[in-house]
UniProtKB/TrEMBL annotation:
<protein>
    <submittedName>
        <fullName>Uncharacterized protein</fullName>
    </submittedName>
</protein>
Length: 485
């Protein structure tokens, strides 16, 4: 069925509205230079590979060329090495400093959907795929949790539970319907707990809570996670070139032998010939694959860090994460870091209080700035939902800490693009995460590597609707721009 849905901050499609919608004209850009720094970037400036090989010419050839050093790129490299590929056969190109895309700028949540998105996904992809999408998210968190524990990754993982906090009776009713629909379709909800009224308020500590659902989820320091992965693969021989955008991929001139380079990748510091190219470029994928310019829409998302006052400090710090929802379109996300107590507060991409100008300004590749109106909404909601002290009562150092933005990749059918790039033998893609990559990359990147090794889609365990194909692009080509409202 042709989708007609916008996607919420957790990657879940929502019904379309009659809000601002435009014809999709197509978007293409390299990452812009000098992006702002996120909280995560500001606390990892000493990462030794941050500007790796930033002045060096690229090597003339490699077997595997991964474009993008976010979690998709680094976990693809990790999975290739795990599958037996020598690290020295892999080169990663990154346009800016290491992990400078969405992976280093998100709201820190690894928060699988437990049931809410089922109905909306079902409208786009059918009930069977929708169930697989939700099940896959649960698996991602389990895999990430196990990976971090097995490898003792120092990425501040807080493996806990999360609340979906319903702040209005209408949204509580919607959640109830979604829960029942998923359950009726055979979805497993045995890990989901439900509270209402006073119990919801006391468990969540949110005074406006009408009802709440709770299930396993977590938070991480995503830049530390990405940097650890890069360090691990570099230690195994993978080579990283930062500040080195791939500007074009073209057919290698003499690719007549099996195993010889098939593609030439241009960069400002020379050309590199590769047998296999993996696009882990998320919102920027269409720059090298122009056909995607009407499929992937960039959207600037924003997050905010606050230093809590007494109400969320010490023993009152929150060890559970949450999504605080007035409606499908108007919500906030919260994690509180267990080490330094910093609160990271995310916002939905729409809000009835925002001006048209603000709403339109989010469709952009520009992550050098943040939007003040969105930040003001976040600060106000954080203070009122958690009864934080009024500005005049705060001590110097409490309150707003840092605001930042990053670019996410929206697709009209709300799911990522994984697999072979049709018609470009030897090119692969793992991108288009709809602002929800933390709940997807941990199965998508290893799944892609299985495909690259010749295994069938069924071995990936991924929902079939994630598979990249020209047919999928065609099917969606006349869809209106979804991420503008
Ligand atoms: C503010 C914000 C909040 C978010 N909150 C959450 C959340 O709480 N939970 C969640 O699951 N997800 C969240 N996300 C989304 C999540 O961060 C992304 O889905 C995920 O990080 C995507 O990872 P990636 O590796 O595919 O893309 P990216 O991390 O964007 O990596 C792509 C990389 O490719 C590089 N690149 C692009 N083009 C080229 C080129 N031509 N040459 C060389 N390099 C290139 C870019 O510079 C970038 O480093 C959020 C995102 C933002 C911005």
């Amino acid at each position: 069925m042709a989708p007609h849905a916008v996607i919420d901050d957790e990657g879940v499609p929502e019904p379309s509205t009659n809000g601002v919608e435009e014809r999709h004209q197509g978007y293409r850009s390299l990452p812009v230079p000098e992006p702002c720094l996120s909280y995560w970037h500001r606390t990892t400036r000493a990462f030794p590979y941050l500007n790796e090989n930033s002045d060096e010419e690229v090597p003339t050839s490699t077997k595997y060329l991964i474009i993008g050093s976010g979690l998709s790129g680094s976990f693809t490299a990790w999975s290739l090495v795990e599958s037996g590929v020598p690290g020295s056969d892999i080169v990663i190109l990154e346009a800016r400093e290491a992990v400078s895309g969405a992976s280093g700028r998100n709201a820190g949540h690894c928060r699988p959907d437990a049931f809410r998105g089922f109905s909306a996904y079902a409208k786009v992809h059918g009930a069977e795929q929708a169930k697989k999408i939700v099940e896959n998210e649960k698996l991602v968190f389990e895999k990430l949790d196990a990976f971090v524990k097995e490898h003792r990754v120092p990425c501040d993982l807080n493996s806990t539970t999360t609340f979906d906090v319903c702040l209005t009776p209408e949204f509580a009713a919607y959640e109830r319907e979604s829960f029942e629909a998923y359950k009726a379709a055979g979805g497993d909800v045995s890990h989901v707990k439900f509270y209402e009224g006073e119990e919801a308020r006391s468990r969540t500590k949110v005074k406006e809570a009408v009802a709440a659902y709770e299930w396993p989820a977590g938070s991480t320091h995503p830049a530390k996670l990405g940097q650890w992965l890069l360090t691990a693969v570099i230690t195994k021989g993978v080579r990283l070139w930062t500040h080195c955008p791939a500007t074009a991929v073209s057919k290698h001139l003499s690719s007549d032998m099996v195993g010889s380079p098939r593609w030439d990748i241009r960069t400002p510091r020379g050309a590199i010939a590769a047998e296999t190219v993996v696009h882990c470029t998320n919102a920027y994928a269409s720059y090298l694959l122009p056909r995607l310019s009407t499929f992937v829409t960039p959207n600037r998302a924003q997050a905010h860090s606050f230093i809590p006052t007494a109400s969320l400090s010490g023993a009152k710090a929150l060890d559970k994460t949450m999504s605080l929802r007035y409606s499908l379109r108007q919500f906030f996300s919260l994690i509180q870091r267990q080490g330094d107590g910093t609160v990271v507060f995310g916002v939905s991409r729409s809000n009835p209080e925002w001006s048209e100008e603000t709403i339109h300004s989010t469709v952009t590749f520009d992550d050098t700035v943040y939007n003040h109106e969105i930040a003001a909404t976040a600060a106000k909601a954080y203070q009122s939902l958690f009864v934080e002290a009024e500005p005049k009562q705060r001590r110097h150092g409490e309150g707003a800490d840092h605001y930042w933005s990053g670019i996410i990749a929206m697709t009209p059918d709300s799911v990522p693009m994984i697999g072979a790039v049709d018609g470009k033998d030897g090119q692969w893609i793992c991108a288009g995460f709809n602002g929800h990559g933390m709940a997807r990359i941990w199965t998508c990147a290893p799944g892609l590597v299985k495909l690259m090794k010749g295994q069938p889609w069924s071995e990936t365990g991924l929902p079939e609707c994630f598979e990249y194909s020209n047919e999928r692009l065609e099917r969606n080509k006349n869809q209106e721009l979804k991420s503008v409202w």
